Amino acid sequence: MLSVSRALGRRLFSSAAAAAEGGAAASTSVVRKAQNPLEEFFEVERSAADDQARPHYGRGWKAAELRLKSWDDLHKLWYVLLKEKNMLMSQRQMLNSENMHFPNPERISKVKRSMCRIKHVLTERAIADPDPRRTAEMKRMINAL
Fold first, then answer.
1. Cα–Cα distance measured from residue 129 to residue 145, given in angstroms and rounded to the nearest whole number
2. Which of 13, 49, 57, 60 could share a disulfide with 110, CB 3.0–4.6 Å?
3. DSSP codes, 23-61
């Protein structure tokens, strides 16, 4: 009885969420909603047919691109990269514990390099600020990242 109510609840919740999102989800790529918050720490499983064509992952952010972004955009990007790094590290740890090979280990270094570049750009902005109090406050915030 409990499993039937869970399945029905999931089906109703997913249909309600799909109706609420409407056309927004149709214009973007496939969006995966995690049933369990811990599922966000792992990538979507790919079938055997997908393994033949290895997916191509993008490059890291360049400092010149990051300099064009606002303070708020950089902070949002920082937390997106932090979430991605946590997901990759969790997946790598899980696969290592099962004596399996972690695919695309270069993704972790791309994310770490992008995070370092964000800190560098924020530090440049803090140093360029003429107000010493604001500079000190910005450096404390950057070091807390």
1. 19
2. 60
3. HHHHHSS-----SSGGGGGSPPP--HHHHHSPPPP-PPP
